[in-house]
Specification:
- The chain has 229 residues and is α+β, with helices and mostly antiparallel strands.
- 41% of the residues lie in helices and 25% in strands.
- The chain has helices spanning 15-21, 46-59, 87-92, 118-131, 153-157, 162-173, 185-192, 196-222, and strands at 3-10, 28-33, 36-41, 62-68, 72-78, 96-98, 102-105, 108-115, 134-142.
- Helix 6 crosses helix 8 (196-222) and helix 7 (185-192) crosses helix 8.
Amino acid sequence: MSLWEISFRTQYDYPFIKISGRHPGLPISMWCIWNRELVQVPTLDEAILADIAKEIRKAGKCIDQWVEAADSRIFMLKCTCGNLDSPWNIWEAHEAIDAPPAIFKDGWGHFRVIAFDETKTRDLFRDFNKRGPTELNRKRELPLSILPSSIWVNSLFGDMTSKQMDAMLKAHRYGYYTSPREVTTENIARSLGVSRSTYEEHLRKAENRIMGNLIPYMLLFGVGEKKPE
């Protein structure tokens, strides 16, 4: 068995590719996971954001949006793969997986995928070329030794409940993990309409689950070679 990394760009009738073409110079990033799509737009220009938000809502159902790191707008959508000719559908049909994020810029979609069969990558490109111009940027064989050291997100978050996940995301969004902290658990709980004890219970369980799942990776990393302090 071999492992191949393929980086390419393509241009076809897909809403997020079209959106990027109407906003040249603005790279739009997307992560597609767990029946959700997270779209990051690196601008706080309200006129541009209002236009992009309108276009995103035409493409799919927007669940939430918020300002992140003071320079971007984040949109959370229900997965649109079932309604659109999504690139994720195309490469998954050829048993390839994506290495996120996908980048949409200047009317092109830029992607990186991992495949386990080099011959299937030819069929993958054939499918994309049927839809529009597709250009290969890089194709290289990777050593299988990289797989055991890779952290798959399901191993970290798969056993978390939606309430625990939401509690941690809200804590991060409102500045609970900054130093110094910008908000208290009491403030976050009040904004969510729940008691502080209830919110803290969900947050602590989320933190404990993530740390418990991270420890094996930290132990492996701990015995490896480190950069000198």
